[in-house]
């Protein structure tokens, strides 16, 4: 694999002072998968602008360990069109030169933390080849599970008093907050969520607190108006490539629904790379910067949690879904072998949680992919999906086939350049290996598969699930052979019948 590295990544890697600890993890993976590390001539030019002669000399010596890309630096016409919209200065133009090499196929991918480059990559349709550090580590972990240093255990509910304050995971908190250790000990009996690796080291930690309308917010500028809120008190996810950030966001949103709050907020520094990465994640899911905490200088981020629905981007109003518009609803069959692998929160009582540890990115992600060759393909953004776990082998379908999960469509993709394009667009979210994806692609030349990118919204709990027998009794299924070989459209009335039958908490549904 030919990997082009952004100039800032090279600078962070080769500087004498540790600026970004994540860079070390990235290069560890690059070495593990034996990737060829490339630099662009523009990187050399940027390095040679340094005023300190000794520093410049040292950097140039270190650059010898990379392969220098031989290129004419001529932008493709399609890239030129994008640069006219996005490039405002020399830095932007230099970034476009890097992106151009990915577009024309000189290199396989680009790794960069620059948000603007990612926007341009998306506009060019090559976002699957441009990665953040975290995304590349996730990609590598997914494609090379044999090279993983450890497995990630399931997220557990624990208590402050049960966790080891001396775990290196907490070092950054101790550096940022002088009272952290005493505060931590005082919270001994309060619940938290934690994920660890098999060696017992903490990888992610979350503490939540519900605050009432009389909470004192005098330290926040501008001061909050009275509302019932969910405060994200402590939230950190170590870079690991397992999408634990999304897994913990799901917990945050689930708690917000359960507590019926109007707003979620967090105060966070933005001086560390791990904090910046977390801020980016929160922004992707609808959090906005709203002010500062005066005593610490932290930024304050809020997420409106009053019922609303963003048609253009369902992530921004997740987990709410709407029945007030022209979206469609489908029953979506999924085989037992893949059901709980893709939707671990929806596992049945007969399945052991020990078989579904969060050691694969797609298990933790809220954003997932469903692959189908269904004749019914009229699927669009905001359509609602009801996942139907098909019958277990050698067991009666009436009792083992069951509705388990609600999702909402982000996009449907059916036009692929070739097999590799299909695999690359599935890989990050799919339960399938590359070999299995190849089988999906080549099974029928005249009926290529399509993919549905969706958000996992709600898992029916034990006692809420509607089995096939009841679906037949309600007239929601006819019992015809092959009725559920693909996506089955149903009416809003039929959807409501299922919701009422399950007696679920409907607080996430906008009628």
Task: Describe this entry's structure for a reader.
- It is a single chain.
- With 511 residues, the protein is α/β, with parallel strands linked by helices.
- The protein folds into 3 domains: 2-147, Rossmann fold; 156-306, Aminopeptidase, CATH 3.40.630; 321-510, ph1033 like fold.
- The protein contains 19 helices and 22 strands.
- Helix 6 crosses helix 7.
- The longest helix has 16 residues, at 244-259.
- The chain is globular.
- The protein starts with a strand and ends with a strand.
Give a short summary of the structure.
This protein is an alpha/beta fold.
> Strand arrangement, largest sheet?
6-7-8-10-11-13-12-9
Rg from alpha-carbon coordinates: 24 Å
Structural class: alpha/beta
CATH architectural group of the largest domain: Roll
* Overall outline: globular
Characteristic key phrases:
22% strand; ph1033 like fold; 3 domains; Rossmann fold; seven-stranded mixed sheet; 511 residues
């Amino acid at each position: 694999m030919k990997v082009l590295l952004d100039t800032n990544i090279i600078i962070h890697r080769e500087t004498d002072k540790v600026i970004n600890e994540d860079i070390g993890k990235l290069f560890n993976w690059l070495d593990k998968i034996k990737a060829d590390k490339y630099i662009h001539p523009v990187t050399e030019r940027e390095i040679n602008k340094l005023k300190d002669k000794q520093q410049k000399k040292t950097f140039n010596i270190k650059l010898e360990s990379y392969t220098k890309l031989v290129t004419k630096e001529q932008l493709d016409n399609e890239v030129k069109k994008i640069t006219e919209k996005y490039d405002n200065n020399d830095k932007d133009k230099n970034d476009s030169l890097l992106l151009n090499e990915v577009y024309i196929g000189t290199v396989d991918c680009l790794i960069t933390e620059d948000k603007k480059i990612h926007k341009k990559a998306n506009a060019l349709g090559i976002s699957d080849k441009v990665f953040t550090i975290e995304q590349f580590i996730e990609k590598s972990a997914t494609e090379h599970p044999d090279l993983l240093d450890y497995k990630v255990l399931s997220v557990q509910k624990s208590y402050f008093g049960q966790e080891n304050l001396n775990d290196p995971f907490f070092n950054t908190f101790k550096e940022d907050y002088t009272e952290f250790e005493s505060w931590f000990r005082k919270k001994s009996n309060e619940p938290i969520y934690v994920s660890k690796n098999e060696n017992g080291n903490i990888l992610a930690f979350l503490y939540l607190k519900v605050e009432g309308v009389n909470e004192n917010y005098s330290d926040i500028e501008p001061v909050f108006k009275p509302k019932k809120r969910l405060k994200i008190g402590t939230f950190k996810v170590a870079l690991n490539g397992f999408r634990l950030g999304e897994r913990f966001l799901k917990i945050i949103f689930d708690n917000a629904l359960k507590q019926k709050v109007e707003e979620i907020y967090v105060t966070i520094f933005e001086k560390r790379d791990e904090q910046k990465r977390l801020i980016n994640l929160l922004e992707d899911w609808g959090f906005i910067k709203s002010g500062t905490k005066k005593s610490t200088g932290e930024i304050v981020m809020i997420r409106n949690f009053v019922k609303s629905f963003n048609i253009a981007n369902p992530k921004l109003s997740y987990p709410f879904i709407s029945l007030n518009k022209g979206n469609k609803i489908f029953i979506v069959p999924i085989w037992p072998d893949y059901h709980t692998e893709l939707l671990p929160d929806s596992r049945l009582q007969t399945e052991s949680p020990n078989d579904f540890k969060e050691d694969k990115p797609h298990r933790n992600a809220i954003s997932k992919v469903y692959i189908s060759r269904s004749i019914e393909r009229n699927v669009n953004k905001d359509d609602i999906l009801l996942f139907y776990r098909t019958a277990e082998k050698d067991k009666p379908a009436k009792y083992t086939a069951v509705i388990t999960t609600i999702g909402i469509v982000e996009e449907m993709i059916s036009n692929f350049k070739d097999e590799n394009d299909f695999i690359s667009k599935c890989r990050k979210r799919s339960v399938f290996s590359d070999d299995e994806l190849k089988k999906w692609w080549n099974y029928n030349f005249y009926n290529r598969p399509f993919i549905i990118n969706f958000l996992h919204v709600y898992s029916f709990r034990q006692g809420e699930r509607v089995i096939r027998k009841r679906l037949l009794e309600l007239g929601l299924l006819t019992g015809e052979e092959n009725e559920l070989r693909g996506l089955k459209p149903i009416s809003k009335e039929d959807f409501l019948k299922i919701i009422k039958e399950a007696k679920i908490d409907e607080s996430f549904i906008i009628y």
